[in-house]
């Protein structure tokens, strides 16, 4: 069976939106790092907010994902029935 690409025109808007939001924080970090490489002197400080926000979003989503997985594992261990 053929799978549609992640951002194809066939996928519903909610899936496209979810895919774009999943890529938003890594792309923000990448953009900040590229900006950091291309700037010099005091103007390098201007990319710091983008870098911090992107990193914060990425770490927050990682923390939420781990917490949800722990809760799911805990509930599966409490209810071993099927």
Task: Give a nutshell description of this structure.
The chain is 70% helix and 0% strand.
Fraction of residues in β-strands:
under 5%
Q: Whole-number radius of gyration?
A: 19 Å
Poorly predicted regions = none
Please identify the structural class as seen in this structure. mainly alpha
Number of helices: 2
- Structurally, the number of domains stands at 1
Q: Report the principal-axis shape.
A: elongated
User: What's the average pLDDT?
Assistant: 86
Quick one: how many beta strands? 0
Binned, the helix content reads 55-70%
Name the helix and strand elements from N-terminus to C-terminus, one letter apiece.
Answer: HH
First and last CA, distance: 29 Å
Task: Report the biggest beta sheet as strand number plus sense, adding barrel if it closes.
Answer: none
Account of the 3D structure:
- This protein is mostly helical.
- It has one domain (19-78).
- The protein is built from two helices and no strands.
- It is elongated and about 60 Å long.
Could you give the topology of this structure?
Blueprint: H1 13-38, H2 48-78
List keywords for this structure.
single chain, 82 residues, mainly alpha, 2 helices, 70% helix, elongated
């Amino acid at each position: 069976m053929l799978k549609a690409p992640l951002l194809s025109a066939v996928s519903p808007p909610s899936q496209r939106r979810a895919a774009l939001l999943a890529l938003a924080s890594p792309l923000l970090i990448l953009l900040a790092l590229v900006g950091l490489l291309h700037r010099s002197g005091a103007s390098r400080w201007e990319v710091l907010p983008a870098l911090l926000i992107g990193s914060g979003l990425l770490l927050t989503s990682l923390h939420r994902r781990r917490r949800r997985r722990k809760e799911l594992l805990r509930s599966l261990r409490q209810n071993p029935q099927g």
